[in-house]
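Usage

Read records sequentially. Each one opens with the input sequence:
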Amino acid sequence: MACCGQKRALLRQQSASKRDVPSLEPIPTERERPSRESRVFEYLGTGMLTLYGAVSGTAYRFTYPGAVLEVLYEDSFAMMAERSLRWVR
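and closes with the structure output:
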């Protein structure tokens, strides 16, 4: 007959094996993420405007009024807040 110490050890092993351990999925890298379409913006201001993407850090330079540039999807949300830019659908 087993003593109580061995029974406790056996119970610990059984309860540890019954626990559901969540599987950890790796975070996809930039290349593995599905690419989203870029968005096009038109500059409505005067002069020249240079903005940097909030996510990518890419410099977007609008050199004249009416200039149209493609902006990465990730940066487009910050660009929508700029009053002198209009999103061209």
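Summary fields computed downstream for this record:
- The chain is about 25% helix and 25% strand.
- The beta strands are 39-43, 49-52, 59-62, 68-71, 85-88.
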